[in-house]
Design goal:
- It contains 14 helices and 8 strands.
- By secondary structure, the chain is of the alpha/beta class.
- β2 and β3 form a beta hairpin.
- α8 runs antiparallel to α9.
- The radius of gyration is 22 Å and the shape is globular.
- It starts with a helix and ends with a helix.
- Required for the transposition of the insertion element.
- This is Mutator family transposase.
- It comes from Cellulomonas gelida.
Amino acid sequence: MVATCYLLGVSTRRMDKLVQSLGITGLSRSQVSEMSKDLDAQVTAFRTRPLDAGPYTFCAADALTMKVREAGRVVNAVVLVATGVNADGHREILGVQVTTAETGPAWLTFFQDLVARGLNGVKLVTSDAHAGLVAAIGATLPGATWQRCRTHYAANLMSACPKTSWPAVKAMLHSVYDQPTAKDVQAQFDKLLDAAVDKLPDVAEHLDAARADVLAFTAFPKDLWRQIWSNNPNERLNREIRRRTDVVGIFPDRASVIRLVGAVLAEQHDEWAEGRRYLGLELLAKARITIVPGDEEVTDPHLALTA
């Protein structure tokens, strides 16, 4: 019961009152230690489990910052999280890891672990434009395309745009995503570039440099676009993590971060497994078909193995 309250984000003060209402005067250190060991074992098993439900056609990666006490100081610790859509169309928590900072080597180690545990068949990874993250994707997932999150990109573009011009640029950028076909998306993006190139050269340069990565989603069926063109689904997951961790405030150590965040993610993973499919099987099958020169369709071998 105490462990459940902990995972639900019940504050320490409220938990203490609840325990007292049940006639328990307090919990000894040994009792708390035993509960922690049990939870740690469950989280470790979850974090190190084989990723054997692939191919994981679509993945997403993100990072959150937590406050942790180390050597008498309060420092930042970064939680790396990856999610994916498995062969059955359900979302999974693929991995979670705590590191000192969001760096290239940290992301590389993270993805290497995912691959070692069985991550395969990845066609697209959606994330922000952190250089180390993008490099790690390229180094560990050959053949996977990177989708630059449209929400993060809009924020990046806004920083390069004069404040008075941003409403018009934002509206035109949104109109790109509203198009019905990949060809129309590209054509509307051209119109955006043409509109910006003379009056807003910095904006036009920014857009042109990001084009391939921002529009990577167009290589897949339109019915999938909303699920893959941004990290918004992961942002909702991040908000749930924040809701549970805000009651802690400053964690006593990194192990406690893994304990709580890992348990919250394991719970979410189970809910996804028991809920409706995130993506339909027919859509996933279409997404795994590669078009080669001569208009010959080649079905991904991972799909054939799971048929």
